[in-house]
TrEMBL record:
SUPFAM superfamilies assigned to the protein according to its UniProt record, in alphabetical order: Hedgehog/intein (Hint) domain (SSF51294)
Name the record gives this protein: Hint domain-containing protein
Claim: Signal is one of the keywords in the record: yes
Pfam families in the record: AXH (PF08517), NADase_transloc (PF25302)
InterPro entries: Ataxin_AXH_dom, Hint_dom_N, Hint_dom_sf, Intein_N, NADase_transloc
SMART domains in UniProt: HintN (SM00306)
Hint domain: residues covered: 254-358
Keywords in alphabetical order: Signal
Organism: Aquimarina litoralis
Source organism superkingdom: Bacteria
Amino acid sequence: MKLKWSVYIVLLYAAVLPAQQLKVLTASIEPLEFSKQGEKEFNDNWKAYEAISEKMQNGIDYDDLSIQDKEALDKVSEVHSDYWQVGTDGCSWYCGASVAQVAASSYLSSQGNTTYSPKNAHDFDYKSAWVEGVSGYGIGEYITYSFPQENPRITTISIVNGYVKSEKAWRANSRVKKIKMYLDDEPYAILMMEDKRAAHHFTVPPIGNGDRHNYDELSKLPDWTLKFEILEVYPGEKYEDTVISEIYFDGIDVHCFAAGTKITMADTTKKNIEELRIGDEILSYNTSTTTYSTSVIKELANPVHDQLITITFDDQSHITCTTDHPLLTSKGSWVSYHPAKTMRDYDYDTVELLEVGTILLGENQSKRITSIAKDINEQLTYTIVELDNGTNFIANGIIVGTEPIRAVTYCKHHPLEIKELD
């Protein structure tokens, strides 16, 4: 690593467009505290969780577990399986989004088995990091993320500043104080970073394509980019190297239903989708046996959307959902308003176009679509992401699919090849 010349030197980068002409964004702060002891406790708890889960799979009911076993289960989140993991194993904005490429102006050469390449800043691992590779503090160096045009929009940019894997590493290396952010190479904002071992969450107006109806045409266009340039740093106590552990994103436009959608429970009663909880039992349809069975909710999600459709049926009932949500027809085929996106993002090999006249399979009777209306008003939406068995549920009396994610996304849970430029 490069030894620092002085802990008192703060270098500023003379940008072409003065910083004061750009909007300045501050972040909400999420403190991060990682330690060897914390990692040991996490791993011990996870091993206990796996052992207890095996007992339950072998027929032991939860009520028959010991108090110690129940306490052990309470210490573990089944969707957070790694101590260094950013986010969870569950569904997120990345379930419908991807990063096409991560590149940087420079990066430090590997030291032994430890690498510092740009892909480390988007591997969803707090233990790795991108480190710029030029002499000095890296003022003017940058990292760039490229996104497909058909991607859902971004509303949150999260930056994990410094080498957060340990307090010692965080203090030894330099951290970013100011970042200049570019959208398609045009200056967008100055991001103000606090000198804290933390994730910085910046809220932005939706970035990306709001009108993403023609996915085939959008997919032919060049990727759009976000670039993050180092403007000013907090000098490290030992090294000049400036470190960013992670940059990741959240946003809107992923699958879901509007609030008030009625979900059929296992006892055939109805509950609003926004009132569902993990562990609730709902009714699911087996397409092979054409029978209904009980399924337990394992995961829920509720992102914001402003591109929904309201489908009206011949019995005057209706349902409001996102354009990519798969619905089951009376013939047993899957349809959506945007089948190309459904097949791209979710594990459905064949999805047909949903249109007026399509007959959907209903809980009690089939329903013919009489109209489809677009709704551009922004609203909080809801969906069932995963069931313990089955891949569908009943919403407003029709059979709708969950979204098993096609393996094209970002990490060991949703793998994606991330390219890297020198």
